[in-house]
Write a structure and sequence with these properties.
Oligomer: single chain
Largest sheet: 2 strands, antiparallel
Family: Belongs to the mitochondrial carrier (TC 2.A.29) family.
Structural class: mainly alpha
CATH topology of one domain: Mitochondrial carrier fold
Keywords: Membrane, Mitochondrion, Mitochondrion inner membrane, Repeat, Transmembrane, Transmembrane helix, Transport
InterPro entries: MCP_dom_sf, MCP_transmembrane, Mito_Metabolite_Transporter
CATH superfamily of one domain: Mitochondrial carrier domain
GO cellular component, one term: mitochondrial inner membrane
Pfam families: Mito_carr
Number of strands: 2
Number of helices: 10
Shape: globular
Strand content: under 5%
Length: 339
C-alpha cells in the first residue's frame, strides 16, 4: 500500500516531462525538413524553393533530415524540460488561483520561466543541431563532418572545451523565453477562446490555436533565432578572428548591414515550421495516456532507433501493465508508424 502511494505521488509529477519529451521528438520527425530549410535561408542560401531544390539535387533527399539525431536529442532535453516545467508551473498557479483560469500575463510568466529552464538544459544539443545543418554550406576544408549528435558533442568538448557546448547559450535562452511566451501563453488563450467563445470542436480548436500560436511564437522569437544561428555556426577566419565577438555585436552588425527586417529572414518558413510543430506537439502531449508503472515494479523500456531516411522507430517492451486500453494502443501505432 505504501509503495502504491509512493508511485502515485511520483508519476503525476514526472508525467508532463515524459509526455513533453516524447511528443517533441515525434513532432521533430515531421518538421525536421522545414527546420533544415529555415536554417539554410538564414545562412543566405536563397529562397525556400531554391534551397530545397539545391539540397535535393546536390546532397540527396536525405539532406533534409541532416542533423535529425541532434534535433531529437534537443527535444529529449529542451522540450522535456520546457513543456514539463510549464505544465507544473501552470498547475500550481491554477491551484493558487482557486482553480480559476489563469490570466494571460501569468501564462506568459510561466512560459518565460519554462523556456529559460528548457533552453539552458538543451543548449548543447541545439549547438550540435545548428552545426550539423550548416556544415554543407561551409568550404570543404572547414567542414566538421559530425556523424551524429553524440559525436558532435564529444568533439566540441574535446576540441573547444566543455564550456563551448553552451556557445550561443545567451541568445538561445532569450529566444526560448520569447518563443515560449508567444507560443505557450497564446496557445492556451486561443484554446479557451476557440472553445468557449467560438464553440469550435476539438480538431478545429487545435488547428486554429496552433496557427495563432505559431504566428506569435515566430514573431516574438525569430530575431533571437537569427542571432543564435549566426553565433553557433561561425568559424574563425585565416587569422583566427571570429566574425562576431558576441550576440550584441552580431545584432548590431546585422542591423547596420541589413536593417531591422534582416532579423526576420525566412519568416514565412519559420511560421510554417512552428505551427505544425505546435499542432503535433500539443496534440500528442495532451492526448497521450502513458500508464503509471504498477506497484510490483513494472516499467516501460524505450529503445530508440534512427534510420538514415529520418524515420523514428520507438519500440515498446511492456512489463507489468495491468491493462492496455484503447488510447495506449493508438499511442503505440502513432509511435511505430510516425515518419
Amino acid at each position: 500500500m505504501g509503495e502504491e502511494k509512493k508511485l502515485g505521488g511520483v508519476w503525476p509529477t514526472i508525467k508532463p516531462f515524459v509526455n513533453g519529451g516524447a511528443s517533441g521528438m515525434l513532432a521533430t520527425c515531421v518538421i525536421q525538413p522545414v527546420d533544415m530549410v529555415k536554417v539554410r535561408i538564414q545562412l543566405g542560401q536563397g529562397s525556400a524553393v531554391s534551397v530545397t531544390k539545391n539540397m535535393i539535387r546536390e546532397e540527396g533527399f536525405g539532406a533534409l533530415y541532416k542533423g535529425l539525431s541532434a534535433g531529437l536529442l534537443r527535444q529529449a532535453t529542451y522540450t522535456t524540460a520546457r513543456l514539463g516545467t510549464f505544465r507544473i508551473l501552470t498547475n500550481k498557479a491554477i491551484a493558487a488561483n482557486d482553480g480559476k483560469p489563469l490570466p494571460l500575463y501569468q501564462k506568459a510568466l510561466c512560459g518565460l520561466t519554462a523556456g529559460a529552464i528548457g533552453a539552458s538544459v538543451g543548449s548543447p544539443a541545439d549547438l550540435a543541431l545548428i552545426r550539423m545543418q550548416a556544415d554543407a554550406t561551409l568550404p570543404l576544408a572547414q567542414r566538421r563532418n559530425y556523424t551524429n549528435a553524440f559525436q558532435a558533442l564529444y568533439r566540441i568538448s574535446a576540441d573547444e572545451g566543455v564550456l563551448a557546448l553552451w556557445k550561443g547559450a545567451g541568445p538561445t535562452v532569450v529566444r526560448a523565453m520569447a518563443l515560449n511566451m508567444g507560443m505557450l501563453a497564446s496557445y492556451d488563450q486561443s484554446v479557451e477562446f476557440c472553445k468557449d467563445s467560438l464553440g469550435f470542436g476539438e480538431l478545429s480548436t487545435v488547428v486554429g490555436a496552433s496557427a495563432v500560436s505559431g504566428f506569435f511564437a515566430a514573431a516574438c522569437s525569430l530575431p533571437f533565432d537569427y542571432v543564435k544561428t549566426q553565433i553557433q555556426k561561425m568559424q574563425p577566419d585565416a587569422n583566427g578572428k571570429l566574425p562576431y565577438t558576441g550576440s550584441l555585436d552580431c545584432a548590431m552588425k546585422t542591423l547596420k548591414s541589413g536593417g531591422p527586417f534582416k532579423f526576420y529572414t525566412g519568416f514565412p518558413v519559420y511560421c510554417i515550421r512552428i505551427a505544425p510543430h505546435v499542432m503535433v506537439n500539443f496534440t500528442l502531449c495532451y492526448d497521450m495516456d502513458i500508464p503509471e508503472p504498477n506497484s510490483e515494479g513494472g516499467k516501460v523500456d524505450w529503445v530508440v532507433g534512427f534510420s538514415r531516411a529520418g524515420k523514428l522507430l520507438i519500440f515498446f517492451m511492456e512489463r507489468g501493465f495491468q491493462q492496455l486500453d484503447q488510447k495506449l494502443i493508438l499511442f503505440h501505432m502513432r509511435l511505430l508508424f510516425m515518419v
